[in-house]
Amino acid sequence: MARSLIGISSYLEDSARWGVWETPAALLPVGYHRHVQRAGGLAALLPPDAGPGAATAAVARVDGLVIAGGPDVDPARYGAARDPRTGPPAAARDAWELALIEAALAAGLPLLGICRGMQLLNVALGGTLRQHLDGHQGRPGSFVDHEVTPVPGSLLAGLLSPTPLAVPTHHHQAVAVLGAGLTATAHAADGSVEALELPTAESFVLGVQWHPEASDDPRLLSALVMAAAGGRSHGPGS
Question: Which of 1, 205, 212, 220 is at a distance of 20 to 30 A from 156, taking alpha carbons?
Fold first, then answer.
């Protein structure tokens, strides 16, 4: 059987440095593609593309989609005024990833949203975000473990555990009002939403507020790869 191709949205940075180079770059932490590869999938980075129909074309060529973590979502995307603690907007990335999510949902493509990716899934379906909360963010450039409790009977509980578990986290925003059709399927000790699912979707649609790619636990990305392998094919090379 051909290996599933998993598209992963990527960062777009004005300046990145490696070797003797310092230049604009599309980049992604290695945990994302390594988890996909270890699950038997092929990883493809999907940097922002403003071309007409680009998101629909990208979704037509992959078997599954990961919307990666990253900067704060522009509050204008969910009709809110900017909190002073909200980070600067990433307009190109917001537009691209929202288009990818909408195309994936329309196509029934397996989808996993991670941190910002979960927040964007909520916004794409008409939900809102809480722009600041304390206790979910470690030192800059680091993750902190905190406890989340999956909802019994949910997809997440079946994949991980119906009992509390520690997960790596780094965020200061959270879901406020749920988007249409979404169900909260994990919570932190302070009640904030830590996972979302779309029970009516034809395929795997899951968002988590933490960073599974920063852990040694492969189960969520493995589940996405498995869902992609059982989904539709894409073109003659599939």
Answer: 1
**Side chain identity at residue 221, one-letter code:** L
CA distance 27 to 9: 9
pLDDT tens-place string over residues 112-132: 999 999 999 999 999 999 999
DSSP per-residue codes, the chain:
-PPPEEEEE-EEEEEEEETTEEEEEEE--HHHHHHHHHTT-EEEEE----STTHHHHHHHH-SEEEE---SPPPGGGGT-PPPTTSPPP-HHHHHHHHHHHHHHHHHT--EEEETHHHHHHHHHTT--EE---SSS--STT--EEEEEEEPTTSHHHHHS-SS-EEEEE--S-EE-SPPTT-EEEEEETTS-EEEEE-TT-SS-EEEESS-GGGSS--HHHHHHHHHHHTS---STT-
Active site residue ranges: 115, 211, 213
pTM for the full model?
0.94
- pLDDT score recorded for residue 136: 85
Tokens of 15: 């300046």
| Tens digits of residue pLDDT in 138-189 | 778 889 899 999 999 999 999 999 999 999 999 899 999 999 999 999 999 9
pLDDT for res 137: 76
